[in-house]
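This follows on from our talk about sequence and fold. Can you supply me with one protein entry, sequence and fold together? Could you add the entry underneath, on a fresh line?
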Amino acid sequence: MRNSQLIIGILLLFALPAYTAEYARISSGCWIVDLWNTPQAGHQGDDPTGNMQFYDCGGDSITPLYHEALAVGWQEGSTIKMFSDAITRDSSNLHMIALSGITVSEVGSPGSGTGYYKTESLWSTPDGSVEGKIEYFVPGSPDTSVLIEKVTLWNTSGAALSDFIVGEESNWDCDPDSSIDAGFIDPEYEMVYMTGHHNGTNIAAALRVYDGSNAAFGAAAINGYDYAYFSQGWYPDTLYNKLQQVAGSFDLFTDSANGTEMRILNVFYGGMLATDDTLEFCRVKAVSLTGLTGLRDLLDKGFAFIENYEICFEWNTGWGMCGDVNDDSYSNVSDAVYIINYVFIDGPPPYPNYACGDVNEDYTVNISDAIYIINFVFVGGSPPGDCAPEHWDIPCWPYQEHP
């Protein structure tokens, strides 16, 4: 035990610090896009190159998306708590906080047109009540020119969050003259999409949610002049109330006397978020130069890509491996560090499944689980087992040794 405590003391020196916001610029297929270590995509400065610039693989370039940002909000009594990088820029205390640097990896050979680029990072709301992981996947094939996004978040507040809502604002600009942009509904695909007209092409842009949405899933095309001044962003109570209004429906709000400066709001989850609850959802974004038909085709390819590479899992199914709390397919010292961060410095709970941290099967996740893994790795202790599947609503797979 003394050796385990010494190791824990050393590992605590490597607890995750706070990080500044940063992005990685990914070029693949027909995309050039800036992906951040907070849940947002698109460049915010004077250089438009990373604003999810789309190429027709033949030289005709457009910039259909200026910026997207995840939004997370809930009620504390009569007080609205709302956090997003889409909120007014001078309200930096309401923007998401980076908890890690951004990592970029490759699966397959995306530079040669197979596999994908992946970015991954951790983030939290400024008050630490919600923490999460954002993962972006950019296929290498020009034939599957989509952006796949996976969000996992945890309630780390220590209490249930009421009227909890997770959504996104996407500032699609499908035409250099944004007054030409228009919003439409595709009922079959359950999505709101935008169109523009540029160089004789019919541009359409949208996202579609993969498995993981709940009954609150909905979307609306709105006029930015009416709800969000385009150079500053939303106010927190306005964004929260509008997302609540959008939840569970598909609508267009275009009745403005100020022309059209269109935005799309999407809602992914609404309801109570219990203590230590975990949410995961995936979505596919695409821009088509051949209208709705081409847009649907790209979104279908994005869904097929998710399934072929097993990127996302279905909602609330048992998955993850016992002892693998950081979801890297192994149980090793990094998992002990992960648990230590969770216990001592309010790091994120075990992912992809809380049960996967209960390696000593005492029906909780605490420092004894980190010691268990340390003993397994360093002194030949017993490997993780099943993680008490009879106790947890969402169990994880039994530990499996890798070669």
Q: What stands out?
A: The longest helix spans residues 291-308.
